[in-house]
Every structure is written in C-alpha cells, then in structure tokens.
Amino acid sequence: MPEWWRNAWGNRGDEQPEVLVVRLVVAALLGVGVAVSRTLARSDGRPVAGLRTTLLLLTVLTALVTEVIGNNTARAFGLAGVLAVVRFRTVVEDTRDSTFVIFALAVGMAVGAGFLTTALVGFGVIAAVTVAVTQFTGPPAHEGKIVIRLKGKETTEAELRETLAKYVDSVTVALVGSETVKEADTVELTFRFRSALKGDLGSLIDALKSKPGVEKVTWDLK
C-alpha cells in the first residue's frame, strides 16, 4: 500500500476492519430489537411513522461514533460540538418515544465501546421491562381532538357529547372551544377527550355525521 495513502488516514495501526464490521452488525441487530420493543409498547402495534428506521439507524450511528471517539478526549469534545448542531425538529408527542431514543443511544454506545455483554444484558432487561409494563398497565389511552361543524340548533352540544361517550371508555369528554364560521347559525365545536376507543374510529365519525345539522367532522387522535 503506498505511503501517501497510509499517511492520508493518520497511519493508525490499531484499526481492525473485521472488529468494526462485527460491532456495527451487532448494533444493527440490537437496533432492530429496540424498534420491535417500541412497537410492542404500543396498543395498536404501529409506532410513529419513521420511528423504526430512526431507532435502527441511531443505534448503528452511535456505535460508529463511539468507535471513532475511542479513548481520545479531544475527539469526543469535537464530535460533541459537531453533533450538537443536529437536533430533532419533530415534536415528540409520546414521552416513551424519547425514552426509546435514549435506549438506542445507550445500546449503540455499549456496542461501539466493545462492551458486548453490557449491551446484550441491558437490551434484554429493558426490553423485558417494556413488555411487562405494557402488559400490566394495559393499552395507553388515546388523546384526541374532534372538531364538529354544526349548522342550526337541531342537535345540541349535550347530544354530541353523549354520542362521543358511547364510543370511548372511561370517558372524559370536554368542550374546549366554539367558533362561528361563515353563516351566523353555523359553529365549530371542539371536543377533547382522553380514553381508549371502544369501537373503530369510522363508526364514531359516522355516528356524529348522522346527527341533524352536522356538516363536517375532523379529528386528530394520538
């Protein structure tokens, strides 16, 4: 190998490509495990869009960064400054998502530093706790907002609230706002609730739309 090529890469003699490959592959496998654990922690089995990929890649990238840092303190501070520029711009609505991001970081750091036993044991314990907690606490409650455009006075707020109560369990439905739109006799009522849906969302929407005067129903469920 030419001398200029070795000099271009710092001439490090401690680099072992096979070790790096093994660690990154293990990190990828554990990243898949972290993503699956997050999926099991949700009642619907569907994590936030893109979260599976994020957890997988984050585990591998953290392992790679840890490998690059090694025992070099100056390099660690330099990389910390560079990575500080990157930040999440998507609001994390579920605090558990933040926890699993830290989970992925911790596993990736352990693998990258060569602590395979720590990574495997830590992954196993945390994944088991995740499944156990989900089983004991039951499915998480939905937080929802439903906006109903209502024309005329054939249907009252109380009737709409009663209809909502039929489709949610342990209901806590509250009217949080109303706004007059276009015609004077047309209003938009905004309800918020926190509970688990008894039936499917489509049935709830159909039940609301069947009420006299209901022109439009929009929703946002978390």
Count of runs of 4 or more consecutive helical residues: 8
Radius of gyration: 26 Å
Structure classification:
alpha+beta
Euclidean distance between termini CA atoms: 57 Å
Helix content: 40-55%
Topology:
Blueprint: H1 3-8, H2 17-40, H3 51-69, H4 73-83, H5 95-112, H6 116-137, E1 142-151, H7 157-166, E2 168-169, E3 173-180, E4 186-197, H8 201-209, E5 214-221
Antiparallel strand pairs: 1-4, 1-5, 2-4, 3-4
Structure description:
With 222 residues, the chain is α+β, with helices and mostly antiparallel strands. It folds into two domains: 15-137, no CATH class; 142-221, 2-Layer Sandwich (Alpha-Beta Plaits), CATH 3.30.70. Helices cover 54% and strands 18% of the residues. It has eight helices and five strands. It has helices spanning 3-8, 17-40, 51-69, 73-83, 95-112, 116-137, 157-166, 201-209, and strands at 142-151, 168-169, 173-180, 186-197, 214-221. Strands 1, 2, 3, 4 and 5 form a five-stranded antiparallel β-sheet that branches. It starts with a helix and ends with a strand. The model has no long low-confidence stretch (mean pLDDT 75).
For the structure shown, list the relevant keywords.
222 residues; alpha+beta; Alpha-Beta Plaits; 2 domains; five-stranded antiparallel β-sheet; 8 helices; elongated
Could you provide a short overview of the structure?
This protein is an alpha+beta fold.
